[in-house]
């Protein structure tokens, strides 16, 4: 099971139009409603691949009830924390060429009791020994920048690896708390360092700097997992059409990129990338987890590589994935799967997440020690 935590979820309405003209009335050509929020999207993607996903979310107002219902219909187990104010209702406008315009509401403001109950909901769910805890998205009003860091600490104390996908000071605080995986995009990584990142080398350097901000955990885990199960700390940076780069402590950077596709919507592509990566890491660690008394392979949805699309090994060159990449095949398979899932999401309308049929056939090229002078601007 993978546990996701989305403190600022939404109900997303996506409207398709021929073209956006500022100040005019537009006639929509399509419309759909989806559960929204980065962690919610991760859970939805996992569920489509028959992986057990549990979503911890605040539930407030009519929108909160709609969100919970949509998630349960999609096979995601919901751990709802009641709040007084309604959650967000966001609007996305898409054009035929893939241009996406988003309008996000600010979201609720949580009171002191609600903050404690939200953290308590995550902590209680950790007792179910998930393979990963995934903390995603912006923080609503009332939650300070250190909230994710406290969640990371709770996960580490219980021996559960934690992935964080957020931005700004919250990302930096989560890194300092020792999150096992950070998943910013290039813009968010540039923002946290306060400088432009124009080449792949800039991105890799910034990712390594983020890894180096980690602090030792504030106490030994209550139930530590075997070292063979715990993944190395890493930063997975999404780069849009340039794919993604995985930067792991003490190892060379690896980039993966899919063949070009015609985009329909970019909403949720980074979330699908993270879901595919974690799905594959969870599946490939099944043997070690079972030896430790963990969950069965069925919780991970079977053999993840089958859903990852095609991995063009020839394009990876003659680089050896052993040596410094002692865990290389695991990481490489996960990176390939993540890029395949993210690419599949771009081909879908609105914030729809990709299932196995959507991912199948996606070709992904892997570059070990990639060209760091490559410009990564769209």
UniProtKB/TrEMBL annotation:
GO terms for biological process: carbohydrate metabolic process. PROSITE patterns: PFKB_KINASES_2. Residues 292-328, 364-378 have a biased composition (Basic and acidic residues). The keyword Transmembrane does not apply. Gene3D superfamilies: 3.40.1190.20. The keyword Membrane does not apply. Keywords: ATP-binding, Kinase, Nucleotide-binding, Transferase. Residues 21-283 form the Carbohydrate kinase PfkB domain. Residues 287-331, 347-378 are annotated as: Disordered. GO terms for molecular function: ATP binding; kinase activity; phosphotransferase activity, alcohol group as acceptor. Belongs to the carbohydrate kinase PfkB family. PANTHER family: 1-PHOSPHOFRUCTOKINASE, 1-PHOSPHOFRUCTOKINASE-RELATED. This is 1-phosphofructokinase.
């Amino acid at each position: 099971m993978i546990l996701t935590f989305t403190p600022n979820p939404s109900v997303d309405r996506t409207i398709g139009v021929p073209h956006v003209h500022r100040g005019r009335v537009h006639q929509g050509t399509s419309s759909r409603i989806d559960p929204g929020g980065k962690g919610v999207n991760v859970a939805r993607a996992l569920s489509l691949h028959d992986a057990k996903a549990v979503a911890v979310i605040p539930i407030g107002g009519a929108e909160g009830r709609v969100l919970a219902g949509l998630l349960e219909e999609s096979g995601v187990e919901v751990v709802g924390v009641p709040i007084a104010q309604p959650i967000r209702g966001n609007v996305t406008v898409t054009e035929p060429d893939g241009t996406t315009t988003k309008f996000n509401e600010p979201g609720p403001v949580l009171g002191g009791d609600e903050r404690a109950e939200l953290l308590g909901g995550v902590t209680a769910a950790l007792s179910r020994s998930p393979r990963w805890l995934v903390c995603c998205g912006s923080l609503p009003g009332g939650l300070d920048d250190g909230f994710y860091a406290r969640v990371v600490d709770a996960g580490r104390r219980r021996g559960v690896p934690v992935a964080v996908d957020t931005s700004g000071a919250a990302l930096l605080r989560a890194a300092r708390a020792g999150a096992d995986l950070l998943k910013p995009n290039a813009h968010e990584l540039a923002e946290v360092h306060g400088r432009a990142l124009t080449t792949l080398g800039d991105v890799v350097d910034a990712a390594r700097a983020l890894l180096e901000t980690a602090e030792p955990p504030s106490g030994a885990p209550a139930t530590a997992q075997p070292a063979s199960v715990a993944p190395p700390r890493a930063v997975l940076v999404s780069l849009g059409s340039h794919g993604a780069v995985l930067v792991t402590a003490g190892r060379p950077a690896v980039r993966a990129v899919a063949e070009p596709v015609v985009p329909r919507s970019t909403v949720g592509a980074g979330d699908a990338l993270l879901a595919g990566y974690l799905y594959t890491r969870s599946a490939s660690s099944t043997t070690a987890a079972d030896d430790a008394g963990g969950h069965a392979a069925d919780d991970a949805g079977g053999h993840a590589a089958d859903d990852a699309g095609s991995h063009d090994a020839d394009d990876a060159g003659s680089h050896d994935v052993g040596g410094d990449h002692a865990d290389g095949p695991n990481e490489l398979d996960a990176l390939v799967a993540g890029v395949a899932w993210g690419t599949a999401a771009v081909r879908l309308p609105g914030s729809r997440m990709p299932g196995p049929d959507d991912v199948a056939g996606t070709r992904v090229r892997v570059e070990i020690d990639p060209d760091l002078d490559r410009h990564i601007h769209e």
